[in-house]
Write the structure tokens for this entry.
Amino acid sequence: MIKYHIKGGPTHHRVSSQNRDTRRRAYNWDVNHQLRSMVNELTGVKVTYGYDEFSNLVWANQDSRQFVFLYRSVDDVGNLYETKDKKDRVYGAGSRLLETKDAKFSYDEEGNLVEKVEPNGDTWQYEYYGNGMMAKVMKPDKTEVTFKYDALGRRIEKCSEGRATYFVWDGNTILHEYVSQDDSKTLENASKTDDLDSLVTWVFNDGFVPSAKITGEGNYSIISDYLGTPVEAYDEQGHKVWSAELDVYGRVKECTGEKDFIPFRYQGQYEDVEIGLYYNRFRYYDPEQGNYTQVDPIGLAGGNPTLYGYVSNPNLQLDPLGLMAFWKELKHNGMGHHTVPRSHANKHGFPNLGMKKASPSWFPYTIEGSDELHKQFHDALKEQGIPFNRPFNGSSADLIYKTNEAYKNFPQKGFVMIPSTGELIAENVTVREGFHEAMKWDAKKNSGGCK
């Protein structure tokens, strides 16, 4: 059970099993929607957080031996450091991480990490396909881990030391995975011939939050925190079989049970324990460094000037696709908030509202805190049964009605504009009123009443 304060931030997270609390967290937020502290009410351990003037999360301090004082300082460009004085890392052109106390890094002409050399001489080598997706990792012991992807860039196969893991997808989330001890097979003949005792089915809530693991040996419920990060798993009898806590880099610092029993970390990330990286749909994330191993495939459109960085505030933002932060501030030079989610608009007869920057979007007058507001909009839509990452199972009339209901409790004022042209559609309107204005604009567009 998660409780929220009036502005939408979580204040308490409580999990109970067999008539006792197994997890209790209390959250304290400041007026800028920044998480200032988290308290484990079962152990008394408190984590406090600090931010710079640009709302970047720059340190975490826990009164226990595991975390102590952990910095994620940023320079003027956004490059990440683990010390307050920002002298522990060396960055090169294009924000490529060249050296830390633990390793030296080399890159190819495309900006992909190709080699990591540790102080003892251990060397990791990385190879890529032409589209920039990682193809192979050669570990220091000379064993190889290889990867294959489908036409949409989704990973469908991982092979390591004679063992192949196959993945079947539902949109942008993994539906099934299973293992073969013969890595010479393909996905097609493996699914036809293998004994599928190893088959795992993953159940996701809307978006990228896993809720269950279904196997031939039993079914397991997955509990996630307010960010959608898995923190606990329970068997059918209510026994806790797995738990994990991440630090502010996404590293697993505390774990009970087998670490990869639940391989999902921050939303959209799947940990590959063989190589120490998280597969993040379009890129691979290195939790030890807090950076991606490849440049952002969409370049500066991802909103991160370093091209390798994760989100600026992992207490609030997510990057489930490895492309850009969710949720970003609704800046006036950006894409804004599409009052009807684009995928649903395109599939339910409103294609004029489904364009990235050529459709009317709502923008708040006050940008500060709009990332949290943006998240609240989509949470409200989800509560009405309008998912972010899955099809909407209803009619066009249902979509309009539920969208209107979702926005009724948001008093914030803003304006509706077409980002690509700057055309102003409406001023001084709430997001609900902005939705109405967008629908009017669409009706005029369809009737030929506006250019």
Notes: Residues 431-447 form the longest helix (17 residues). The chain is about 10% helix and 35% strand.
